[in-house]
């Protein structure tokens, strides 16, 4: 939400500066993301009027303007703007002015003609990123007045990063309510009243989907002036809120959306065929939207339709065929309430996100529709004229949301906040937040959100409830609240205080002393206002008390907890152990989203069948990951694109895979390695990481289990994401538990990766259990080592050779070590030589040469028989 500070201060004006206001909002849960000036830094720019215009003698595209700036003599200014004309009022930079971008205005000559200043556009004043001509000011703009003063440019825009539960603050009225409560000030907004209805024309409205749209209000306006323009003050407020001016009708609906938080839409009455129907679309229907995009509708999409076809995507965007245009003279204004669950996700499903859908998804005040309609009508008539018809207000009351009372226990406040807030202060805060507070039965064990036997009284709910500004319990009465938040008149709102709010004695804390009623027995029943969709539980009310009382005012204390020592078997390796091991190897931990790009997921793991999200955050986060590789690859690409050529990343997290019809969440440990293996240093040459470095890191992880002999690596040429010649599947006792390898070159190219990338992923379950160290007897007799070199087919792996030797050898075989691989001269094509060191030792005696020769002979015979290996000569 982006808004002008001056606009906010017209509603409520606390005696604090901008920085303090921003801090106050942030500490109240409305985080301020940015504060920016509404215009660039400039001076000596005034309102100028073109009183004469002549062609430039030496340039066809330039003209010489005589400009009145309120001085003794008019200025001569050479201008090339297409819209310069006699009678135009525009910002005029005087000689000596400084404009944004360090542009200094001096006396100059343009093609030989003296120029004594510059006529300015919005871009040159820092009011817009681009402009097609001079900024045109209203005809009544006072000549000679400073533009900064005339446009009130000594202002800032404040941008809030609101959480989804605070949809009530997506308007200036909502933010003003908060500021008023925080500073105990009255909130004064415009009074909409009721517009005169000289015409009796109406449009029939039918609610066919009352569950999704239980309330719809609309009215006709005939005879508006199609030539009317948007007033500068309104266009400026829209600009400072991040919206551009599109014409008075659309601008007014956008203005009311920003001011009150009620999205609205205007239809060209001449383009509607019959009455309005709020219904679900029929399968196969299509709609061309205002952005010229044509979409195919499904049967779960709510639409606004006339008697022939849909004319708007309900709560999201209007249709192009019924849009207001330059020649529109009759319009139908719409102001509706749509249930959040009916709108949520629909816009993103069509690749859209609008200001309307953003608000309806979070919840709009169901009592705001008619007041907003009256406010928009008044603004339109003031700008465009026209005659209004009566409001058509159709609702299905039993489908409208009702704010159920929430029980609040006084003793619970202190236990959660750790602060002693007096009872009357509790009532005061909740009342100023627009809530109705009533005493409840002292049932300490009763449900905190119970609404048994109680309802929300209509007279206690207003169209736009706001803080009354009173510290004496006022504001709980419906008749004392105007449609827009205004303070009650002096003396009103007091006579029913006794039956609405009964606070405990002032100053009573958690102790209660020897008073007749213990503070622990005080229970209130609190009815939230219609605009607070996020207040449903007792803890929600306590959160409100904490933030309004002030988080800075809550005492700091250490939590008191009872610790129970959990059982931790020595054979279980915690995940943190493996993370520390990777950090020691130079890796950095990454934490990525579980939602990934379906296209990238398909490239990396096409066989997995990822779960597609029904309501994704965005199009590139629309599937649940079946591997941690997509997130790691995107993180690596981000770093490589920023000149970080050495990237070692790991992540511990869940992957989501289908086991039959069930979706399983499997914890895995994944890593990525790219670039130099070590940081540059003088003692050795820089070496790029390769497949065996990646495999070595994985082997170090597996060795931590104490069961390294249970794991093996088999070549994998089938995985689509990995290089066929540099990929392996990790097996534990014959069962796949992970993979590693180089990223496939085609995939590397499509991702725009400039260097080789190596990946690994292991199921955490395979690493969790470890073999406990156990003593084994040591032989006191010497060991004997024999080296052998064998020649065999190049496709046979060293692992198969070691497996064959272990199978053929006896218990005397203590160790096998591969220390050389040779291919080249002296070895036939398609074959290779492996050199292995075999260590033999016996526990009971010293081995003789005959024992060793017998063992070696048995091993060589097995190698020849099973693998076709021969002793190298």
At a glance:
Its main location: cytoplasm. This protein is α+β, with helices and mostly antiparallel strands and 873 residues long.
What does this structure look like?
- With 873 residues, this protein is α+β, with helices and mostly antiparallel strands.
- It has six domains: 2-38 and 156-183, Phenylalanyl-tRNA Synthetase, Chain B, domain 1 (2-Layer Sandwich), CATH 3.30.56; 45-150, Nucleic acid-binding proteins (OB fold (Dihydrolipoamide Acetyltransferase, E2P), Beta Barrel), CATH 2.40.50.140; 205-399, 3-Layer(bba) Sandwich (Phenylalanyl-tRNA Synthetase, Chain B, domain 3), CATH 3.50.40; 406-489 and 500-512 and 520-553, no CATH class; 575-768, Bira Bifunctional Protein, Domain 2 (BirA Bifunctional Protein, domain 2); 784-871, Ferrodoxin-fold anticodon-binding domain (Alpha-Beta Plaits, 2-Layer Sandwich).
- It contains 22 helices and 40 strands.
- Helix 6 (248-260) packs antiparallel against helix 10.
- 36% of the residues are buried.
- Residues 401-556 form the B5 domain.
- Mg(2+) binds at residues 534, 540, 543-544.
- Residues 779-872 form the FDX-ACB domain.
Strand order of the largest sheet: 28-31-32-36-35-34-33
Q: Output mean pLDDT.
A: 87
Query: Which oligomerization state do the chains in this entry correspond to?
Result: single chain
The number of E-state strands comes to: 40
What is the number of helices? Answer: 22
Q: Quote the CATH topology of the largest domain.
A: Phenylalanyl-tRNA Synthetase, Chain B, domain 3
| Gyration radius, in Å | 38 Å
Biggest sheet features? 7 strands, mixed
Second rung of CATH, namely the architecture of the largest domain: 3-Layer(bba) Sandwich
The H-level CATH homologous superfamily of the largest domain, spelled out, is Phenylalanyl-trna Synthetase, Chain B, domain 3
Distance between the termini: 82 Å
What low-confidence regions span 5 or more consecutive residues with pLDDT below 50?
443-517
**Helical content (DSSP H or I, runs of 4+):** 10-25%
| Helix vs. strand class | alpha+beta
**What portion of the residues fall into strands of 2 or more residues?**
15-25%
Q: What is the CATH class of the largest domain?
A: Alpha Beta
Taken together, the total number of domains comes to: 6
Tell the overall outline.
elongated
